Amino acid sequence: MTPDPVLTPTQQQVVRSSIASGAIEGWRPTADDTDLLHHVAAGSITASDAVRRVLELHSSEMSHAHTEAVAKQHDWRTASWDDYLYAGTNVLVNRLNIRDSRQLARAEGILVAIRTVEVTSGTAGVSDEFDNTQLCAFHCQLAQDLYDWAGRYRSVPMGKQWSGFAPVDNIAACVERAVEVVAETDWTTVADNEFAEQAAIMYAWLNYAHPFRDLNGRTTRLFMNCVAARSHRVIDYDKVPRDVWIQRSAFTVPDQGQTRPQPEYMTPVFRACTRDFGADGRLDKLSIDRQRGWHGT
Predict the structure, then answer these.
(1) What's the pTM?
(2) Cα-Cα-Cα-Cα dihedral of 117, 118, 119, 124, to 10°?
(3) For 61-115, what is each residue's pLDDT tens digit?
(4) What distance in Å separates the CA atoms of residue 184 and residue 113, rounded to the nearest whole number?
(5) How far apart are CA 162 and CA 158, in angstroms?
(6) Relative orientation angle of helices 216-230 and 9-24, to the nearest 10 degrees
(7) How many domains does the chain fold into?
(8) Is residue 174 part of a domain?
(9) Which residues contact 227 (CB under 8 A, 6 or more apart)?
């Protein structure tokens, strides 16, 4: 690969945001991973070429017994819990046919980061409408190299030890509530405190929805980035410790027997990690659209 390109401040932010979002999920990029993301952000290689390089590196980890059909064929609208997993394991069925959870996590980390940079750079062709279609399109972009159910809502109940996420038949309504927050807020004039409050409400609904079988956090944070860009702000996810983000996110899930999330737990988090894009003195504003991606003036 050619020497590491010199990135503009905007391109640096694109890479930083992609890495920070993955870090919340436990991903730690190698120097080669970071170098690859720099080249994608600079446009010196395409995201598809970067993905091919990653697949070559992970080829030894893939099971070659079923190279022509590495994923189960299902109607993912009615899939059961076991349909998502390789038999006898907790490893998600994936297009690479990787059967080891750690190896899959490593591949997932860089592949999703590449696609995140692609979307944020404006080269993925995703609609700029902030709705459920865009959310699914974001997930489809991030998951396309790994999972057959990319962009599809989950068909199974999900939860963590503290509480359950939205029932399957309530996912769409929760996503719609988040979309309504986007539509109801004047992001171009919102003050800092109100931004944090509205961002927390939107995030809490999406977190409770947890609409996909996996990659919910990274998809939601990408969606949040795009909304923040409307107000010429950047969400620096690396400004908040990972354990704080996870804990506060967990607190937003409705208490047992309740159906409304509790966004107040995330308001101080967004207040701490959000800044005007011009706060570093280099750029005055940031916006995002389908044609140009993130761009500063």
Answers:
(1) 0.89
(2) 180
(3) 665 444 434 445 678 888 999 999 999 999 999 999 999 999 999 999 999 999 9
(4) 30
(5) 12
(6) 150
(7) 1
(8) yes
(9) 130, 182, 187, 199, 202
